[in-house]
Design brief:
The chain is mainly beta. It has two domains: 10-52, no CATH class; 81-192, Virus Head Decoration Protein, Chain: A (Beta Barrel). The protein has two helices and 16 strands.
Length: 194
């Protein structure tokens, strides 16, 4: 049996190089030890850089959009849109009023307290107790609308938008139809009809 001390130094270094390579990945100051068996070296350059084959990435599944996250808080105070809590399940595009607790409810043109506390038009839907976005000024677009351009838009029953002027209760102008799908908000003080 050969004593380890009798093995020439060149063989020890050769064995070390064949079993382990020290690599410094691009953009890193770390040194990584990689067994030679894991490398497929194509070429050794003059500066002792090793060129390695890289396997091609194969897409196994098609990526899909995940579920939407919660809506963000509208812009700064005084902006066109603000956020309140829905007092009941509320759809978008309803005229709402705000109660003493900061919850919003569909406004009714026959109820004085509703029209005096009118806040704006919902631009998002929400379940009771969840945040809902309410717009007070600017324009709102909805592809499903069939508004008559140039005609005024009023508060209708249960917070609905209508282009029919009310015959009783309160006349509350919400805005004007700019196109068949765009409403320019111009919320006015209520006028009591007799």
């Amino acid at each position: 049996m050969t004593d380890l001390l009798e093995i020439p130094q060149e063989h020890l270094l050769l064995e070390q190089v064949q079993t382990l390579v020290l690599l410094e990945p691009k953009g890193s100051d770390d040194i990584v030890e990689v067994p030679v068996e894991q490398l497929e070296v194509l070429e050794v350059l003059e500066d002792n850089t090793l060129l390695e084959t890289v396997q091609e990435l194969v897409l196994l599944t098609e990526c899909q959009q995940g579920p939407p996250g919660p809506p963000g808080v509208p812009g700064p105070a005084g902006g066109q849109v603000l956020q309140r809590m829905a007092g009941m399940d509320t759809s978008a595009l309803l005229v709402v009023y705000e109660d003493l607790f900061g919850a919003v409810w569909p406004a009714d043109p026959d109820v004085e307290s509703d029209v005096l506390a009118l806040l704006g038009v919902t631009v998002s839907a929400a379940v009771a107790g969840q945040p809902v976005n309410v717009q007070r000024m600017g324009s709102i677009d909805d592809a499903a609308w069939q508004l008559q351009p140039g005609k005024r838009v009023f508060l209708g029953r249960q917070g609905q938008l209508t282009q029919e002027p009310p015959l009783g209760g309160y006349d509350v102008l919400i805005g004007t139809a700019i196109t068949s799908t765009r409403l320019l908000l111009n919320i006015q003080d209520p006028i009591e009809l007799e």
